[in-house]
């Protein structure tokens, strides 16, 4: 396992769909035509979407935005993610998942990779959505401030 965080991605047409919405994987291993394992280095942020259905409709819609952790670092467990990660945002239910995906699209429209967004922003989005409030938009100015803050080590 080493220092990487491994995410099992599954695609079974109209039944189970687990996919990485964004993030910079450091490796990938194909298990079979429906499954693969994607690896992320410590500190990398990725969006992991899970959806499942049965004969009667959708039974699971969920998105988690996770920061891969270093070995020995405190973390939360998450299905299909080994060993787990620092969960910055977790949302259940298609309307909320769709809203987060729209936020990701908006950030990408600014020319910013969502994997580079300040982790604090993902926590803010999570908290605001949990309180049924609209999150503040992530702007180029906020991103520039985050880059500067990261550069000085805070």
Secondary structure layout plus pairing:
Elements: E1 5-12, E2 16-22, E3 27-32, E4 35-40, E5 45-54, E6 57-67, E7 76-78, E8 81-92, H1 94-109, H2 119-130, H3 140-151
Antiparallel strand pairs: 1-2, 1-4, 1-8, 2-5, 3-4, 5-6, 6-8, 7-8
Provide a descriptive summary of the structure in words.
The chain is an alpha+beta fold and 154 residues long. The chain has three helices and eight strands. The protein has helices spanning 94-109, 119-130, 140-151, and strands at 5-12, 16-22, 27-32, 35-40, 45-54, 57-67, 76-78, 81-92. A five-stranded antiparallel beta barrel has the order 1-2-5-6-8. The longest helix is centred in the middle third of the chain and has 16 residues, at 94-109. The mean pLDDT is 95.
Features:
154 residues, alpha+beta, five-stranded antiparallel beta barrel
Tell me roughly what share of residues is in helical segments.
Answer: 25-40%
| Gross morphology | globular
Instruction: Give the strand order, joined by hyphens, for the main sheet.
Output: 1-2-5-6-8
| Main sheet attributes: strand count, strand direction, barrel closure | 5 strands, antiparallel, barrel
Tally the beta strands.
8
> Between the first and last Cα atoms, what is the distance in angstroms?
29 Å
Count of helix runs: 3
Poorly predicted tracts of residues: none
Strand content: 35-45%
Q: How large is the radius of gyration?
A: 16 Å
Average pLDDT figure = 95
User: What is the string of SSEs from the N terminus onward?
Assistant: EEEEEEEEHHH
Given helix and strand content, the structural type is alpha+beta
């Amino acid at each position: 396992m080493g220092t990487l965080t491994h995410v099992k991605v599954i695609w079974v047409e109209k039944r189970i769909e687990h996919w990485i919405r964004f993030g910079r994987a450091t490796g990938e291993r194909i298990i079979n035509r429906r499954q693969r394992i994607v690896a992320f280095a410590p500190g990398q942020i990725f969006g992991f979407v899970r959806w499942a259905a049965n004969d009667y409709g959708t039974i699971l819609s969920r998105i988690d935005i996770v920061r891969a952790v270093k070995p020995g670092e405190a973390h939360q467990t998450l299905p299909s993610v080994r060993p787990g990660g620092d969960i910055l945002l977790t949302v259940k239910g298609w309307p909320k998942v769709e809203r987060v995906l729209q936020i990701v699209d908006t950030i990408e429209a600014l020319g910013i990779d969502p994997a580079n967004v300040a982790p604090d922003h993902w926590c803010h989005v999570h908290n605001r959505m949990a309180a049924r409030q609209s999150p503040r938009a992530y702007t180029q100015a906020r991103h520039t401030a985050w880059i500067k803050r990261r550069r000085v080590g805070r």
